[in-house]
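[Meeting: bench + compute handoff]

Bench side (C.D.) handed over the final construct sequence. Compute side (W.E.) agreed to return the predicted structure before the next meeting so the bench team could plan truncations. Sequence as handed over:
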Amino acid sequence: MIVAPTPRLTRIVAEVWKPLVLLFVWDVIVTVTYYALPFKAPSLPLTLFGTVLALLIGFRDNSAYQRWWEGRVLWGAMINASRSLSREARNFLPIDEAHDLRRTIVLRQIAYVNALRCQLRRQPVDEQVLKFLSRGEAEPALARSNIANGLLDGTGRRVDDARRLGWIDTIQQTRMEATMVDIANAQGGMERIKNTPLPNQYRFFPTLFTHIFCILLPIGLVETLGYATPLGSTLAGLMFLAVLQIGDDLVDPFANTVHDVPLTAMCRTIEIDLLQSIGDVAPDPVKPVKGVLW
């Protein structure tokens, strides 16, 4: 996620420079042709075209932002539920008999959120899980197709073992299960966003219409701007292309780009809070790199 006050101009240019160069070349061709040919092309109702296109792109960007914001809200719920699970393990389980189990539940939850982060970003998971769990502890989950869900299931079985041993009662077990249901629901929401793209109409037609508009733009402006058409048309096209790119950047909040929801930083927040809750030394928070928080 970009946390700098303003996006870097170089980053914006890097994302749209290819269509912008093509647009500028096309603008020059149209301008030269206008003055070389004896007849003039009729003017185009660009104001009407531009208004309709702006509305269409605006709807698309709003839909993309809603997906991005929902992803952030779900991870906020994951942070709160992780803290609750750690607190319940610390307060419900007896200090002496269940000391190792309390610590195991906390470490499993830290491994779980990091596994979920990697799954959403389509990155290798095993290494992140083994940073917090022994191979024997992690192996049953690593053998499953959904590793994060396997880790959560294993935590639920350990809570049930604590109930069988008499360390917690059924009411306390129910409370911890409710917290894990909240965690599972948040994971399900994240997977829904990741695996369900915007409808094809929202992705295809705004892109098509924007490119058509950029092609028509110099034809409609050349009579008014004259030799300044390449500059004016390119700047106007840049605005539409940049807004179009915003929707592409936000539509997948877990794509491991600079526009991502900062999953690494939020997983580190969970790690810090949970380790401190059991008295372990916690790492430092993740800091932005060149204005980007990962």
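W.E. noted at the follow-up: Residues 152 and 180 are 7 Å apart (CA to CA). C.D. will use this when planning the next construct.
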